[in-house]
Fold:
Amino acid sequence: MAYPKSKNAPIQQFRVNLGSELSYNYEGTPKYVDLFSNANIVWKGNWESQLNIVRILEEEYEGFVGQDMMQYSMYNGYSPSEAIRLRSFLSIGDQLRYDEENPAVGKQFFIGSFNSFQLTPKLRIGQSIRYSQMRSKEDNSLFYKGYIARFITNYQFNKDLSFRLVSEYNEFDDTLFIQPLLKWNPNPFTVLFVGGSQGYGEGEIADNLDIDSSQLYFKFQYLFEI
Structure:
């Protein structure tokens, strides 16, 4: 359905979708069956929202079958200018715990944001943080909880040469990951990558991170005419 569009209307666009997803294995056994509905709304002032409702009729994992699980999620986006993009999401409801030794149905909570900022014509930074937790539906015991935070810096020296730095902290594993990358791309047929990655894990001293993995890589691609 379409909402009448006008410059002064609070809702510029409105769409509703209904559907179902079916998934079977090679033996014809149902692996996943659901019914879903979602609504997409474009608001006045560069706002955008999405609401989703999913009823999972049946989902199978490692012989365990979860039934009649409800999930609700919401997404919001706002771009006050071309230089700023703000995004957030929230998801709650029932979900399978994908643990081979002890699969179960749990109550999940998932929230986060991912944003980007064009600080100068050459410099852009991005940030994201995602927090999730799951509890048992039977006794409310905690299956897991934690967050992953990521920060990305992009610098465009000129149209051919750029640099990117990615850093990520994973609370689940208590690890820090850093990855720099230099890219030279003078034409569609020539590209040069020089970069590396550094992984940090929990050290022997409390609250201290030690290097537990390191990698350097180099790639050069050039097209020869014969």
About this structure: The mean pLDDT is 89. The radius of gyration is 23 Å. The longest strand covers residues 64-81. The CA atoms of residues 9 and 117 lie 28 Å apart.
